[in-house]
DNA sequence: GAATGTGATGCAACCGGTTGCATGTCAAGC
DNA sequence: GCTTGACATGCAACCGGTTGCATCACATTC
């Protein structure tokens, strides 16, 4: 093993200085150097100043790995997502990152690519060198998750397992508002363009649509877009138009965006002849027309999840936490009054 | 410090077993247990089997941190990007991730938010616990980058510093093809919607546009969109239309998408009355109309960068590497023949 | 049967920090 | 002047692995 070949020499600075070298150079013990960095209040101001000055000159930086070994605190957390490239995640990652940063933590990012085996592998690699993990839209089965949660503080996002800290984006209120919005605009007959049947979020949304539509006496049909994507959304347009509905709520913004394109290709004007609502609010105003959508607050989810993880790491066990994030409707320009000409069908 | 309170007891299994416990339980030395995991070929098959069986029963997993401390190999790399939420990065991150995974490495992700100070902080936190780093679109100054490169293998993406391994996405060929494409369609007068003046990529693209346009006798005006975004792109539409050009090439896809929206708002039909070309190819077909764009192969960049980092980590110092990735034009539906009515101006 | 070689295993030092406890210094208090 | 205590610093063990070298058992060779 061993250091760089030329690090042994007396005067020559080693490639990366250790605590011992700083100690020797500043004429104090290793313990003092250590304390100068981790518990400076124990030392004279003067000593701290001197040690730090020497350390600075040598370019010394405490070795995190060694520190972690003796303290058990690594200063790392892991975040595993199912697909980095899905626009839902980048804001979440960014927010999680930011929160971790503020606490002085480094974050490992894992990308499971929707594959449970891969996710399990990643967890295995991470778990030894992190103080806690966040699993966003985990595809692992309950048993595995529970096992990992025993070893380390663990927070789930959009996965509802009893006894494990989790943050859930509750799209029901936003969806309800969307239905109300459409009802007020005079729509009586709408479509829900659905996502993956196994997805917790999709179940959430579909149920909310049904419940709320029923309450207001709207008729709702379900049209699948699987897997949910721009393309499947676009392809669904024909069927949706043919069904005679005047508005649609899509599983997510990508599907909604595809739907917009599909409608445009069919010369159906939005919002004049048809209204579209998305879900997640990840596209901002970048669609044409700008999409009315249910804000899923994905950034908040990342922030809150890391926050909960931190408090869990600090030892505040505090039993079960099931943090719900409310959603709300963001009205832009893809929704408008129901067209008068074609009624009910 | 210290372990979990109940880990001391004789029979009770500690929360996370160490090599010593496995050694005792299987009646061999710590060294043997260590070798059973890291160099099994040194041991009898029978011994390996026995040790692993015991380890398994106890739920022992080698502690990465301790291993890293003694070997210097941490099995981690860091990837720092300037903005996770910029659609350019997720594919890059995903590809880098994948490549690292295959090599059994964990990746730290850092988000500098375009801030050099923050980036420097992140590097400082990471550098002690990684074997190498990739800096994508780094905002650090040359001196800092050089210093870090001395301590650890380091690869840059889209940053051109002599003597440091870097992968550069060369958009010139794609931009040239775009100009050729527009010229063939009869456009004589075009606009370049430019990005940040300090950006290496922007300089690249602007120069390529100028050079190629000159070669083909097209006239080019520059219109700024700063910072480059959907909004600034949209706002630039008025000025661009007023200038009398019939086509525009944008610094990136986001700007192009904004421009499309701005044009639509002005009732300028694309591609009938105006052609738009983007850059990066990060939006796929999701714009309306689908965007003709210069593919920047951002995923490849991530993959190649990690690949180079790996070979650098293996000790293949091998002098300077300046890896160029070629780009090409992806023709979709936002470009078409120049309108005949309004000529030159 | 002694010398030699080979392969499996153990011993102990080491990686670079942290920390409980001991030691030393100096000033205040009696 | 001696005790007491507060405070700064040093000593040495420890975290959980890895690894150079020594040892030992056993087989081979002469």
Automatic annotation (TrEMBL), chains A, B:
Keyword vocabulary terms for this entry: DNA-binding, Transcription, Transcription regulation
Pfam families from the UniProt entry: LacI, Peripla_BP_3
GO molecular-function term, one example from the UniProt record: transcription cis-regulatory region binding
InterPro entries on file: HTH_LacI (IPR000843), LacI/GalR-like_sensor (IPR046335), Lambda_DNA-bd_dom_sf (IPR010982), Peripla_BP_I (IPR028082)
Protein name: LacI family transcriptional regulator
All copies of domain HTH lacI-type, residue ranges: 17-71
Source organism (scientific name): Bradyrhizobium niftali
